[in-house]
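Figure 2 data, in text form.
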Amino acid sequence: MPPGEKDFAAFRQILRNTMLLYRDAYQVLKGIAPAAQVGTIHVFMPVFPADASSEDDVLMAQNFDAHFNAVPLRALREGVIALPGLEPEPVEGLRGAADFFGANYYSATSVRAAEPGAGGPYPPDAPRLTQLGNAPWPEGLLQVLRRVRDAGLAIPIYVAENGIGTDDDAWRIEYIRSHLAMVARAVAEGCDVRGYFHWTSVDNFEWHLGWTAQFGLIAFDPVTFERRPKPSAAFLGEIARTGVLR
Protein backbone atom coordinates (compact mmCIF):
# COMPACT_ATOMS: atom_id res chain seq x y z
CA MET A 1 0.00 0.00 0.00
CA PRO A 2 1.21 3.57 -0.62
CA PRO A 3 3.69 4.89 0.21
CA GLY A 4 5.16 1.41 -0.22
CA GLU A 5 7.24 1.24 2.95
CA LYS A 6 8.67 -2.23 3.68
CA ASP A 7 10.00 -1.96 7.21
CA PHE A 8 9.26 -4.98 9.38
CA ALA A 9 10.48 -3.30 12.58
CA ALA A 10 8.15 -0.37 11.91
CA PHE A 11 5.28 -2.78 11.30
CA ARG A 12 5.86 -4.41 14.69
CA GLN A 13 5.97 -1.01 16.38
CA ILE A 14 2.74 0.01 14.66
CA LEU A 15 1.11 -3.23 15.76
CA ARG A 16 2.06 -2.52 19.37
CA ASN A 17 0.94 1.10 19.16
CA THR A 18 -2.40 0.06 17.69
CA MET A 19 -3.13 -2.13 20.71
CA LEU A 20 -2.20 0.69 23.10
CA LEU A 21 -4.34 3.19 21.22
CA TYR A 22 -7.27 0.81 21.22
CA ARG A 23 -6.98 0.37 24.99
CA ASP A 24 -6.95 4.14 25.43
CA ALA A 25 -9.91 4.66 23.09
CA TYR A 26 -11.93 2.00 24.91
CA GLN A 27 -11.31 3.67 28.27
CA VAL A 28 -12.14 7.16 26.94
CA LEU A 29 -15.41 6.05 25.34
CA LYS A 30 -16.46 4.08 28.41
CA GLY A 31 -15.65 7.08 30.56
CA ILE A 32 -17.97 9.24 28.48
CA ALA A 33 -20.75 6.68 28.02
CA PRO A 34 -20.36 3.64 30.32
CA ALA A 35 -23.31 1.85 28.72
CA ALA A 36 -21.99 2.21 25.18
CA GLN A 37 -21.01 -0.94 23.35
CA VAL A 38 -17.36 -0.54 22.42
CA GLY A 39 -15.39 -3.16 20.54
CA THR A 40 -12.59 -3.67 18.11
CA ILE A 41 -12.48 -4.88 14.51
CA HIS A 42 -9.65 -6.85 12.96
CA VAL A 43 -9.14 -8.15 9.45
CA PHE A 44 -8.17 -11.82 9.43
CA MET A 45 -6.33 -13.58 6.65
CA PRO A 46 -5.85 -17.33 7.03
CA VAL A 47 -2.38 -18.15 5.75
CA PHE A 48 -0.87 -21.30 4.26
CA PRO A 49 2.62 -22.28 3.11
CA ALA A 50 2.96 -22.19 -0.66
CA ASP A 51 4.80 -25.52 -0.37
CA ALA A 52 3.61 -27.57 2.59
CA SER A 53 6.73 -29.76 2.30
CA SER A 54 9.02 -26.75 2.72
CA GLU A 55 10.03 -26.14 6.33
CA ASP A 56 10.85 -22.53 5.47
CA ASP A 57 7.44 -21.91 3.92
CA VAL A 58 5.71 -23.51 6.92
CA LEU A 59 7.68 -21.29 9.31
CA MET A 60 6.89 -18.28 7.17
CA ALA A 61 3.16 -19.03 7.36
CA GLN A 62 3.34 -19.49 11.13
CA ASN A 63 5.20 -16.19 11.50
CA PHE A 64 2.68 -14.38 9.30
CA ASP A 65 -0.21 -15.75 11.36
CA ALA A 66 1.46 -14.93 14.68
CA HIS A 67 1.80 -11.29 13.68
CA PHE A 68 -1.21 -10.65 11.48
CA ASN A 69 -3.96 -12.73 13.08
CA ALA A 70 -3.05 -13.68 16.63
CA VAL A 71 -2.02 -10.47 18.40
CA PRO A 72 -5.44 -8.81 18.96
CA LEU A 73 -7.12 -11.95 20.27
CA ARG A 74 -4.40 -12.65 22.82
CA ALA A 75 -4.29 -8.97 23.78
CA LEU A 76 -7.96 -8.98 24.77
CA ARG A 77 -7.85 -12.42 26.35
CA GLU A 78 -4.71 -12.02 28.46
CA GLY A 79 -4.04 -8.29 28.55
CA VAL A 80 -0.65 -8.60 26.87
CA ILE A 81 0.94 -7.49 23.63
CA ALA A 82 2.63 -10.66 22.45
CA LEU A 83 4.92 -9.96 19.52
CA PRO A 84 6.71 -13.09 18.31
CA GLY A 85 10.26 -13.32 19.61
CA LEU A 86 9.63 -11.02 22.57
CA GLU A 87 8.33 -11.63 26.07
CA PRO A 88 4.61 -10.78 26.26
CA GLU A 89 4.21 -7.19 27.45
CA PRO A 90 1.50 -6.77 30.13
CA VAL A 91 -0.72 -3.75 29.45
CA GLU A 92 -3.02 -2.51 32.20
CA GLY A 93 -6.61 -2.15 31.03
CA LEU A 94 -6.23 -4.20 27.86
CA ARG A 95 -7.62 -7.50 29.06
CA GLY A 96 -11.33 -7.70 28.35
CA ALA A 97 -11.42 -4.22 26.80
CA ALA A 98 -14.13 -5.12 24.29
CA ASP A 99 -17.88 -5.58 24.39
CA PHE A 100 -17.85 -7.23 20.98
CA PHE A 101 -15.34 -8.41 18.41
CA GLY A 102 -15.67 -7.56 14.73
CA ALA A 103 -14.02 -9.90 12.26
CA ASN A 104 -13.28 -8.71 8.73
CA TYR A 105 -12.69 -11.44 6.17
CA TYR A 106 -12.20 -11.36 2.40
CA SER A 107 -9.80 -14.16 1.47
CA ALA A 108 -6.87 -16.32 2.52
CA THR A 109 -3.30 -16.18 1.26
CA SER A 110 -0.25 -18.35 0.72
CA VAL A 111 3.34 -17.37 1.48
CA ARG A 112 6.72 -18.43 0.17
CA ALA A 113 9.88 -17.86 2.22
CA ALA A 114 11.90 -17.12 -0.90
CA GLU A 115 9.56 -14.18 -1.64
CA PRO A 116 8.65 -12.79 1.79
CA GLY A 117 6.90 -9.70 0.45
CA ALA A 118 4.72 -11.47 -2.12
CA GLY A 119 1.65 -13.37 -0.97
CA GLY A 120 -0.19 -15.59 -3.41
CA PRO A 121 -3.86 -16.48 -3.74
CA TYR A 122 -5.32 -19.36 -1.78
CA PRO A 123 -6.46 -21.86 -2.87
CA PRO A 124 -3.73 -21.83 -5.52
CA ASP A 125 -5.87 -23.70 -8.06
CA ALA A 126 -8.76 -21.22 -7.94
CA PRO A 127 -10.42 -20.98 -11.38
CA ARG A 128 -10.60 -17.18 -11.25
CA LEU A 129 -9.34 -14.27 -9.19
CA THR A 130 -10.95 -11.05 -8.01
CA GLN A 131 -9.92 -7.59 -9.17
CA LEU A 132 -7.49 -7.54 -6.24
CA GLY A 133 -5.92 -10.86 -7.25
CA ASN A 134 -7.55 -12.84 -4.43
CA ALA A 135 -9.29 -16.20 -4.60
CA PRO A 136 -12.62 -16.36 -2.75
CA TRP A 137 -12.55 -19.11 -0.12
CA PRO A 138 -15.75 -19.23 1.97
CA GLU A 139 -14.38 -21.85 4.36
CA GLY A 140 -11.90 -19.25 5.56
CA LEU A 141 -14.71 -17.22 7.13
CA LEU A 142 -15.82 -20.28 9.09
CA GLN A 143 -12.25 -20.77 10.28
CA VAL A 144 -12.07 -17.13 11.40
CA LEU A 145 -15.34 -17.28 13.33
CA ARG A 146 -14.28 -20.50 15.04
CA ARG A 147 -10.98 -18.89 15.96
CA VAL A 148 -12.63 -15.88 17.57
CA ARG A 149 -15.04 -18.18 19.44
CA ASP A 150 -12.21 -20.38 20.67
CA ALA A 151 -10.16 -17.39 21.82
CA GLY A 152 -12.24 -17.42 25.01
CA LEU A 153 -13.34 -13.78 24.90
CA ALA A 154 -16.99 -14.70 25.59
CA ILE A 155 -18.33 -11.64 23.74
CA PRO A 156 -20.58 -11.26 20.68
CA ILE A 157 -19.00 -11.54 17.25
CA TYR A 158 -19.85 -9.52 14.16
CA VAL A 159 -18.74 -10.11 10.59
CA ALA A 160 -17.80 -6.46 10.15
CA GLU A 161 -16.62 -6.64 6.54
CA ASN A 162 -17.01 -9.26 3.85
CA GLY A 163 -17.17 -8.75 0.11
CA ILE A 164 -15.62 -9.25 -3.30
CA GLY A 165 -14.03 -6.90 -5.80
CA THR A 166 -15.57 -7.78 -9.15
CA ASP A 167 -17.63 -6.33 -11.98
CA ASP A 168 -19.47 -9.67 -12.26
CA ASP A 169 -22.50 -9.21 -10.02
CA ALA A 170 -23.63 -12.82 -10.45
CA TRP A 171 -20.31 -13.81 -8.90
CA ARG A 172 -20.94 -11.34 -6.07
CA ILE A 173 -24.28 -12.99 -5.36
CA GLU A 174 -22.62 -16.39 -5.20
CA TYR A 175 -19.90 -14.96 -2.93
CA ILE A 176 -22.51 -13.57 -0.54
CA ARG A 177 -24.51 -16.80 -0.58
CA SER A 178 -21.50 -19.03 0.09
CA HIS A 179 -20.12 -16.84 2.86
CA LEU A 180 -23.48 -16.43 4.60
CA ALA A 181 -23.76 -20.22 4.52
CA MET A 182 -20.51 -20.31 6.50
CA VAL A 183 -21.94 -17.77 8.98
CA ALA A 184 -25.00 -19.98 9.45
CA ARG A 185 -22.77 -22.98 9.99
CA ALA A 186 -20.69 -21.07 12.54
CA VAL A 187 -23.83 -20.09 14.46
CA ALA A 188 -24.93 -23.72 14.46
CA GLU A 189 -21.53 -24.63 15.94
CA GLY A 190 -21.93 -22.19 18.81
CA CYS A 191 -20.27 -19.03 17.48
CA ASP A 192 -22.14 -16.05 18.93
CA VAL A 193 -22.44 -14.16 15.65
CA ARG A 194 -24.85 -11.23 16.01
CA GLY A 195 -24.60 -9.61 12.58
CA TYR A 196 -23.15 -9.56 9.09
CA PHE A 197 -22.06 -6.38 7.31
CA HIS A 198 -21.32 -6.55 3.60
CA TRP A 199 -18.52 -4.48 2.10
CA THR A 200 -19.82 -2.34 0.68
CA SER A 201 -23.09 -0.58 -0.07
CA VAL A 202 -21.84 1.63 -2.94
CA ASP A 203 -18.81 1.10 -5.19
CA ASN A 204 -15.98 2.87 -3.40
CA PHE A 205 -12.62 4.46 -4.12
CA GLU A 206 -10.50 1.42 -3.24
CA TRP A 207 -7.19 2.70 -1.90
CA HIS A 208 -4.48 2.73 -4.58
CA LEU A 209 -6.78 0.89 -7.00
CA GLY A 210 -9.16 3.85 -7.19
CA TRP A 211 -12.38 3.12 -9.09
CA THR A 212 -11.01 -0.02 -10.77
CA ALA A 213 -12.35 -2.41 -8.11
CA GLN A 214 -16.10 -2.73 -7.57
CA PHE A 215 -17.21 -3.96 -4.14
CA GLY A 216 -20.64 -2.32 -3.98
CA LEU A 217 -24.18 -3.61 -3.98
CA ILE A 218 -24.91 -0.32 -5.72
CA ALA A 219 -22.99 0.76 -8.82
CA PHE A 220 -21.49 4.25 -8.76
CA ASP A 221 -20.42 6.38 -11.70
CA PRO A 222 -17.62 8.69 -10.47
CA VAL A 223 -18.23 11.09 -13.36
CA THR A 224 -22.02 11.52 -13.20
CA PHE A 225 -22.43 10.38 -9.56
CA GLU A 226 -25.25 8.09 -10.72
CA ARG A 227 -26.07 5.25 -8.33
CA ARG A 228 -27.73 2.09 -9.60
CA PRO A 229 -28.69 -0.85 -7.37
CA LYS A 230 -27.33 -4.16 -8.62
CA PRO A 231 -29.14 -7.52 -8.42
CA SER A 232 -26.89 -8.38 -5.46
CA ALA A 233 -28.53 -5.56 -3.47
CA ALA A 234 -31.94 -7.16 -3.96
CA PHE A 235 -30.47 -10.57 -3.14
CA LEU A 236 -28.98 -9.50 0.19
CA GLY A 237 -32.01 -7.34 0.97
CA GLU A 238 -34.33 -10.33 0.60
CA ILE A 239 -32.16 -12.38 2.97
CA ALA A 240 -32.18 -9.53 5.49
CA ARG A 241 -35.97 -9.24 5.32
CA THR A 242 -36.77 -12.94 5.49
CA GLY A 243 -33.86 -14.48 7.33
CA VAL A 244 -33.83 -17.20 4.68
CA LEU A 245 -30.73 -18.06 2.65
CA ARG A 246 -31.64 -19.53 -0.74
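Caption note: The longest strand covers residues 40-44.
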